[in-house]
Amino acid sequence: MFFPQFRARRIRGNEIFRRMVSETTLSVSDLVYPMFSAFGSGIKKEISSMPGIYQQSIEHIVAEAREAYNLGIPAVLLFGIPETKDAVGSDAYSETGIIQETIRAIKREVPGLAVITDVCMCEYTDHGHCGIIKDGDVDNDSTLELLAREALSHVRAGADMVAPSDMMDGRVAAIREVLDEHGFDKIPIMSYAVKYASGYYGPFREAAESTPQFGDRRSYQMDPANRLEALREAASDIEEGADIIMVKPGLPYLDILRDLRNECNLPLAVYNVSGEYSMVKAAAAQGWIDEERVVLETMIGFKRAGADIIITYHAKDVARWLKRG
Ligand code: PBG
Ligand code: ZN
Fold first, then answer.
1. Which of 117, 120, 281 to mutate to test the pocket of ligand 1 (most atoms within 8 A of CB)?
2. Residues lining ligand 1, judged by CB closer than 6 Å?
3. Binning pLDDT at 50, 70 and 90, where does residue 264 land?
4. Is 281 tagged catalytic?
5. Could you confirm whether 248 is annotated as catalytic?
6. Residue 210 has pLDDT above 80, yes or no
7. How many CB atoms are located within 10 Å of the residue 265 CB?
8. Which domains does the chain have, with CATH numbers?
């Protein structure tokens, strides 16, 4: 059917028709809000490259978690900044580690909010890599054991879901096995299955103080040029028992998100990462873009590409904008 029989504008002519034919929806239930928990007390330090996002000590993080909960956001994703770091990231799996204390405090004060934890070593190691170093590279198999210990300690502290972001091979299976062994067979794993070695993580590394002290992460994170590899990564994580699959970063990888949506039937998450947030904030501060409009358009883009879950630093703003309608 072609013009003049077909006129695409007929169903765009008024607000009611536009509502009726809208293909994609965005809801506050789609959102996860990432937060950075810092050791100490009375700390609330804004990350210079991420306006509105803070490193904060437990009392402040609990207050913000409550705010997120009151806005209807279903879950937060926690990152920890420990007091001390060492070669094997001991604080990551310490029972009294920063993240374990934070989980307990949030679950005590805001029990209705789901707590998801990032499982990785880079915030806890003095070299800033996501695992144990052997011969100048991250050693895969010895890292698995520590990741499993870390995940178990998060769940013991009350985490509702764990999200491994290290990109070691076999970590989902290792974590699943340890959780099941200890009776935590009901705890889901949201795997950062498809995580690219990305320049968009720059501001996060300031926030989490996790910049690698030598080299980069390209021996474990994926090459941005690769698309088929994403399917292999996702397939192997699904095989190992992942419950939710994540693509990260978001905006430059919408094609990958769509590929996964077409290829697998698990829930899909996308991480709208720090650099994506910083760029929007910087342009909005200059008055160059309409922040609300651009952010909501980005969120709809993620949903349209296939995401069920959007992890975003904009979550509280989006929740407010959706509420106001
Ligand atoms: C740690 C981790 C990173 C992010 C989430 N978990 C950084 C990295 O891999 O260097 C990035 C999140 C963001 O940029 O917002 N492995
Ligand atoms: Zn890491």
1. 120
2. 118, 120, 122, 130, 165, 201, 204-205, 217, 273-274
3. very high
4. no
5. yes
6. yes
7. 7
8. 25-324 (3.20.20.70)
